[in-house]
Write a structure and sequence with these properties.
Blueprint (H helix, E strand, L loop, with lengths): L3 H13 L3 H10 L10 E6 L2 E7 L4 E6 L7 H12 L4 E6 H6 L1 H11 L7
Length: 118
C-alpha cells in the first residue's frame, strides 16, 4: 500500500488529468446537484483511489475507458474490496457517460433512493 502522502499526491494527479468523461460527469454531480448529495472525486479509499464517492450513501462511481477491458480481474478485486466494506460500486463506460449523460444520471439518482419499506 502506498504511503498516505503518496496516495494523496496520486489522487491530486488524477484530478488534474481526468478524462473527458470524468470531467463531464463531475460537472453534473458536483456541488450537490443530484439529489442534494455530496460526491468527492479521485478519493483515496484504502489501497485504491476511486473516481467518485458519496460517503453518505456508501456509493462509488467508476468511469472506465477501453483499458478496463483488459483489467477485468483487477477491477473485480477492487469491487470486491469495496463491497466487503459496505460500498456499492457502479461502473459506466466513458462512451456511455458522453453519449447518454441523462441516462447515467438517472441510474445514479435511482441508486440514491431509500430502499422501499415492506
Amino acid at each position: 500500500m502506498k504511503k498516505k502522502d503518496e496516495h494523496i499526491a496520486f489522487a491530486r494527479h488524477l484530478r488534474r488529468s481526468s478524462t473527458e468523461a470524468e470531467q463531464a460527469l463531475w460537472n453534473r454531480i458536483r456541488n450537490n446537484q443530484i439529489k442534494d448529495v455530496k460526491f468527492r472525486r479521485q478519493q483515496p479509499l484504502g489501497p485504491y483511489t476511486v473516481d467518485f464517492i458519496c460517503f453518505e450513501h456508501r456509493l462509488i462511481i467508476e468511469v472506465d475507458g477501453g483499458q478496463h477491458a483488459t483489467t477485468v480481474h483487477h477491477d473485480e478485486l477492487r469491487t470486491n474490496w469495496f463491497t466487503q466494506r459496505g460500498y456499492k460500486v457502479m461502473r459506466f463506460w466513458n462512451n456511455e457517460v458522453l453519449q447518454n449523460m441523462e441516462g447515467v444520471l438517472q441510474v445514479i439518482a435511482e441508486s440514491l433512493q431509500p430502499a422501499p419499506r415492506s
